[in-house]
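re: ur msg from earlier - yeah i can do the zinc ion complex, just paste it... oh wait u already did. ok heres what im feeding in:
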Amino acid sequence: MSRAQRSGSNNNGEIPLARRFKPVRGALTSKFRYLLLGSIFLTLISLFITISSNSIERFSTASRQRRLNSLISADGLLLGHFPYPEASNSELVEVYPGLRLNRDTYIALRDMRAAAAYDGISLVFLSGFRSIKLQEEIFYKNKSLRNQIAIERAKVSAPPGHSEHSTGYAIDLGDATMRETDFEVTFEETPAFKWLKRNAAKFHFVLSFPKGNSQGVSYEPWHWRFEGTVDALRKFEPANKRLRLERDSKSK
Ligand SMILES: [Zn+2]
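and the outut:
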């Protein structure tokens, strides 16, 4: 009997134990190996998907934040309003008790009111200079009574330190024949507003918050600002710069 025969057969002449179990064990091992490799592969794939989706989300959040930051730092907007300094007493004149305006603004406004009167239009001056302290009361006290959160309030009123009225260059106008439209969008239907649309630019008055303005401030047909001096233009440069950029991007 050869060595192979001796080690390969048992007494009953059956397949030797080693040969019987080796292939079966081999099949199990390779199945297990495939399963193991498969599950490692799947784990790696799911890990990859998780990591990449997280980083995509992180990236888009970061880019949104960057865009927001650049907008804020570019023009200093706070809830849609630009920062404005408070006019000093020496820049202001009293038009009547309770209404003060920047001196140059008042001179132009007086001329505009006279021109309007000549055309049969009676302009009323509703609100002029407001100190930052008064703006603070309006924004935090009056508006909070209406149960409005800051974002909602900012649509109709500027946060303190961010009102054009604090510069003394802004004026809210009404129509003497239709006082029920004071501070209302319906002011746009008055003869006074129609006249202003045609003529205000001649006196360097500009509608600050037209319909659909990009600052997100509610349409205010009664609120006009004076841009007839270099100092006024400088104060309103951020707002005008934004308008220019918007116009440029629309024309492209
Ligand atoms: Zn106003």
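cool cool. The two ends are 97 Å apart (CA to CA). ping me if u need the other ligands too
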